[in-house]
Amino acid sequence: MECVNAIVCTTMDQTNPATIWDSKTGTLIAHFRGKGSIPRHCISISGGYLYASERGKPLIHCWPLNKQHCESRRLIAPGKIECFDFSPDSTHAAVAVSEKLHLYQLSSGRLLGIGAKHYQPISVVKFNDTNNLIACGGLDGMITVWTLANLIQGSDPLFSSMDHNLPISDLTFTSGSLRSRVLSVSADFSCKIFEVASGKLLLSIAFPARPTCLALAPNETAVFIGNSEGGIFEVNLFDKSRKTAEYHQPTEDKDSVFAGHEKQVSCIAVSRDSIYLISGSHDETIRVWHIESHQCVRKMSQRGAVTNLMFRVFSSWNFATGFKPPLVAHSFINPSNEEAHNDTSFEIMVKDDQLLDQILPTSSTCGIPQLSASVATPSGVTSSDQEAHLKLEIEKLKTVNNQMYRFAVKAILNGPSGVANDSVVPFSNVKVRLPNKKKKKVKGSQNDKRPKKDKTKRKKQKIVKSGKVNQP
């Protein structure tokens, strides 16, 4: 199977809001018919599915990568979704509802925790590459970094910062866990870099135009920042000329600017080999840039303003008709349902039978291995009480089935007259007689056993009745 280096794109187009393009040839690989436009920071690819939410609705729709139409199954949040992100290992989902962050387990749909630290709605949510940190940026200019343990336990975030004065436009993590950095851009014309472990501000860069998005090179040597005037700045993170924690990006440095878009740059991404840069704009175009030469090598027109872009490597099997996504994300469970907290079930997909034997004991029935696992019961309910309750339900079902049978027999046998007849025999004693088929008579056959009639006697009887006598 071949690997495909693809570009995932979302636009404000109502009919085809999401598309996948080949980054080398620029040909369209797949397009997904839509459920409305997809806003910024409202898309994720996980477990063979493309997840996206509509603007102003509490729904996350699911598209299999090999199908154009989304499934009827939807992930429903408790409120209007501002933004969301799925962890790289496809185990958790971070959903921002207004100013609160909700953490869900994808295998069961259970709500693990809620983080409330922002004063205004959250504008961007991002996981790190080790799946244990979540960064949030809000319209209040605050940046918070949570660990999964903080959210589950309901404690305070790892750190929070109010160094930005205006809403956060975009942010991202560097590689690593607690030793990583957080990069953010804001409407206050600045880009800031924080240390995750201490929350210390390491560098602040001021720009002549309002930053709207950013992307970090995979080798972490440079960061690319798009602005509202259609340009893209390149900032070298290892520039030795910077000797202070605050730096102003010069406007006359043309070697660090990618110019070509006519309107605001809304999203950018860098390829895994750090050779190409892609950018999407409100001018309804996607441009592919060669980073070393700062030249535009390809331009792709879209039907609406581009909202999200990402580089992904897919297998050609992902787009085949027989492909089945390996991971199914369950619908989010309403936290007000008490039974959902007591009874928790989730799916695990195991390909090796030996590994399956180690996880759960198995029993064999007719040569088919079957899982034997205990059923979770609500707290305070014993097994004997549950057994009595199930027996009572079975008796109720038998009574209802008997009533349905009596009603059906009355309706069929009595007809439209509706004459009541309580003496209805049980269904097991009802015998149905089928009508016998008449057999055709064949002359000279063994079936015709009746004696032949004498024609001379019949003729004499007719003559006597008429009063005539035959003379000899």
Automatic annotation (TrEMBL):
The record, for InterPro entries, names: WD40/YVTN_repeat-like_dom_sf, WD40_repeat_dom_sf, WD40_rpt, WDR18/Ipi3/RID3
Report which superkingdom the organism of origin falls in. Eukaryota
Keywords tagged on the record: Repeat, WD repeat
Give the region (Disordered) as residue ranges.
Answer: 432-472
Instruction: Write out the GO cellular component annotations.
Output: nuclear pre-replicative complex; rixosome complex
Annotated WD repeats reside at 115-148, 258-299
What Pfam families has UniProt attached to this entry? WD40 (PF00400)
Question: Which stretches are tagged as biased composition: Basic residues?
Answer: 434-443, 452-465
Q: Which GO BP terms apply?
A: DNA-templated DNA replication; rRNA processing
Protein's UniProt keywords contain Iron: no
Query: What protein name does the entry list?
Result: WD repeat-containing protein 18
Biological source species: Lygus hesperus
